[in-house]
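User: My collaborator and I are trying to settle a disagreement about how two of our proteins should look. Neither of us wants to argue from intuition anymore, so we agreed to look at predicted structures for both before our next call. Could you fold the first one, then the second, and keep them clearly separated?

Assistant: That sounds like a sensible way to settle it. I'll keep them separate. The first protein:
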Amino acid sequence: AAMLRLAAGLIASLLLAPLAIWRRRRVPIVLQMTTTQCGAACLSMVLRFHGRAASLTEVAEAMDLGRNGASALSIAQCGRTFGLQVRAFTAEPAHLGQVALPAILHWNFSHFVVLESCHKDGSAVIVDPASGRRPVSAAEFDRSFTGVVLALTPGATFQRAGRARGTAAWQRQVERLIIGSGAWRTGLKALAATLAVQLLALVVPLLTGALVDQVLPQRQIALIPLLAAGVAVIVVTQMIAGFARRLALIRLQADVDAGLMRGFLEHLLTLPYRFFQQRTSGDLLMRLSSNTMMRELLTTQTIAAMMDGILVLAFLAVLLLQAPAFALVTLGIGLAQVLLLVASTGRMHDLAQRHLATQTETQAYLVEALAGINVVKATGAEDLVLQRWGGLHQQALAVTIDKQRLAALFDTLLSGLQVATPLVLLLIGAQQVLNGTLSLGMMLALNALAAGFLAPLAALVSSGQQLQSMGAHLNRMSDVLEAVPEAQGDATPQLTGEIELRDVS
């Protein structure tokens, strides 16, 4: 059990690691879950920037938010409880260059944002807890900034903590799911079947090299039937292992889906009524649907990533043993793919959070409108509902387009690398064949091994891109998992007895 718990903790840490891969000097985005949480979200962002990974729920509980949200005073008081030195003052936009950043600004007389940077021309970059990071022009900044500034810097009692409470909540959820439900047994079966399928891929390059260098030059026709039988065995074995893998994954997904959804809903139903007053039904439904995305992450994506990692190391080791120079060239091309992922991480993570937030707001409004359709019809508010939904839908569509454009740029660059890679390796191999340092069969085998190294590496990069979107779902689900359940009283007694009706007409 201890080993399983350690493995579960390691898996949870690996799943959550991509959430921390953005630039250190960028303010980590924390989006508000309700309209009253803008102040708490801003304070959470500043705390995370300075190294204290305080979750939104943790800050909101410490701030004791009411129905009217936070004030500048409550933000300052809460910041001091976390060990921050807080200075509250009024300032003109031109003087904000002298303020220690990031700072919290009062915005449009009813909102708070985080000022990340300001420029000499009056423009600035803010992190809005309602929509994410965005640049603002000098005119918009002057129009929206009310003059109230909260400058927050670490004090003597400030303590850095690298993991938010939501991370611990998710790790407990993963441990309970993997250990308690027995899903780890099914996962091991899927892992073993996947490993068998993938390691068979190592045989093909070596078989190609032997065929070209030994069988064909010596015209060993008698070996052809033996090689054909070997190929047939490999194909049949791979088909059987692949089918077993699919069956194990189907079972694993069912186990994880049932455990994840049940655990999430069970915790949700234990939360106090105040929690539901601050969130719409549509918002909670979207959080429930995020469990499906997390199921995919915990099953298919996790196993695929582990297998891809093993394959990358295996193919790289064989390449280094066979031709170190060729292996270094292949490794350099692989690192270029990884650098593409790292370069897009921060922007993609921001867009993923904004995309989920706008989609949630749109769907939540639609659910609420349909649930109250009797009121809509009675008051003749159909046009107002359509207009409001249309505005929300346009915002969501704009974020979706931005996200798809970035994904298209990333995929185009990655595809270009994938097209150029075999051509570059073929030219290098051909030169070595002409120089007499490689045989033709070895060149073909090395190219196949290089392709076997780069293909799972590309899959790992693709998984890393998908993990950035998963982080947004995890943040929203953690808002539920972190919430403290209400005190449980005695269980509802089971009533027994009989009801007898007499002389009833």
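The second protein, kept apart from the first:
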Amino acid sequence: MPMVHLGAAKKTLPAQLAHAGFNRRLAPVRSSSESKATVESALAEPAPQQGPSMTAQVALILATTPIVEVLATVFAACGTFFGLLGRMDIWKATEKESFDAVHKAQNVLTASLESLRQDRKDDQKAFTGSLESLHKSGEASLESLHQDRKDDQKALLASLESLRQDRKDDQKAFTGSLESLRKSGEASLESLRQDRKDEQKALLASLESLRQDRKDDQKAFTGSLESLRKNGEASLESLHQDRKDDQKAFTGSLESLRKSGEASLESLHQDRKDDQKALTVSLESLRKSGEASLESLRQDRKDDQKALLASLESLGKGIHGLELLRYADREAWKQDVLASEARQEGRLETRIADMKADSRATTLVCDFRSKSKRIKQRKTNNNSSSAAKPSKPEETLAEKS
């Protein structure tokens, strides 16, 4: 039991007695001779519950201390005990000590206030009634606190279940986005392969047409030579010289066409490599962003679990507190729930920003692919136009023939 200052006990004693239910006026203080006679009679009578050591201690205390200070100390101890009963947040932890203090206070009152027994019967009845009311109110408050704790636990379990469901939905959405990105990447690669095959086919067709044109030109050239041989041996030497010049020019044109075809093939290979590199970089950035978002989701889940455990621990510690502390715990729990919702909104905004960034990257890749297709189409058109244009030596031979 804590030590109480006598002056403070004298000042706070009436208020504590009024709070405990002692509304009757106290009996007049007895003189020192009456207190000595009371002590002697108390020593002469056998104690009902205490041994000789407790009686001797009580007699020594009453003999060496004035009755006013004894009464003030006793009533201050009673007021302190009622104050301890009023503090519901530590009542459960100190329940045994409080009941021991009550028994000790009752024994001291029985030994020291024997002469005031008749005057204090009504006060004892009021004290018993107040204790009974306090006991009932304590049980009612404990029952309400238990019910509130059950309700809070149910609400926390519901919030945990909703958080788990939200996490599952986020994981499903992230997996679906990754699957769609993988499919789009495979489709783009397949389209690139198909474009390469089409370009190779077009190039082979142009080369085949060039070979056929060369065969036709050779046939026409042979016919012209035959006609020239029939026309005369005089012009044959000049025609031979012209043929040599024409063959050199035709060989040069074929060599230039071959070089241009090889250059176009090399540019196509380089464009394909660049497209594959850009697609690989975009896929790597998407994978890294997905891993970062998963890591942030795991960290947010750990933080939410820690916050929920801390709130559960605070609720467990303050389960036997006053009604005001219960309202404060509910307010803190509401703040935690609001903070968790704010974190969820932040995660949603981050995921939306990541999806927007991914869509921008996909748009850039599509723009790059369309530009590369336009460049390839332009090169193909240029090659086809150059292949369709007749060479200068062939025109000369046709004119001469």
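Some points you might bring to the call about the second protein. The mean pLDDT is 72. The longest helix spans residues 121-231.
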